[in-house]
Amino acid sequence: MTMYNSLLLQDTYNNVGTEVLLFHDYSLMVLMLILVMFLFFMKIVFKSTKFMLKGYYSSELLEFSWTLVPGLLLISLGVPSLFLMYFMEGATKYDLTMKAIGHQWYWSYEINEFGGELAFDSYMNNEIQNSTYRLLDVDQHVELPYMTKVRVLVSSTDVLHAWALPSMGIKVDACPGRLNLLSIYSFRPGSIFGQCSEICGVNHSFMPIHLEFSDWNNFLKGIVT
After folding, report:
1. How many CB atoms lie within 10 A of CB 221?
2. Is there a contact between 102 and 175 (Cβ–Cβ < 8 Å)?
3. 56 falls in which pLDDT band (50, 70, 90)?
4. Fewer CB within 10 Å, N side or C side of the chain?
5. In degrees, to the nearest 5, what angle opens at C-alpha 82 toward C-alphas 78 and 85?
6. Structural domains in the chain?
């Protein structure tokens, strides 16, 4: 999760988050390259003894260059983003399925697997004394096994919501009357926090998401009990 005075992105828990982080850094590198080139040519123009463009009317090479170079830069950004978009769709086979349903203004979760049924509502923890993370802690968190392919079915009962986990680089809209699907996979245990990322009303800021990744034994104990 993001800590105080943090300038960088959050630590990632899965491959998707790592790829999103790398693409973010690569995009910034391309933007810095464009900025440096622009400032360099501006310096040449304004610091020269006479303007280079005076009496310069046309050049096929120049027109070809300022068309080709931006096109190559866009391709260098578009191709990785398309690969990343399809990579974020996840696997076709899953070990576990969970439902996340948005309400005004809380989340409800359902897990019906391995002969057990688990369904509960998750509200923000309003007791500041018992809350470790302000506006992010909930009264009942979701416990999932790590190193496991989990399919999440996201929907809503009233208005548009968004189930977002920045540490995993995923965000999916919760639409009334529609099921959206996403895949989550954590390669290490730990706690992941998120929030609703779609303006859904007056208490939109108070819909936190808390996932706890642990081993299979703890997960199955929660399902059975």
Report:
1. 12
2. no
3. low
4. C
5. 135
6. 15-87 (no CATH), 96-224 (2.60.40.420)
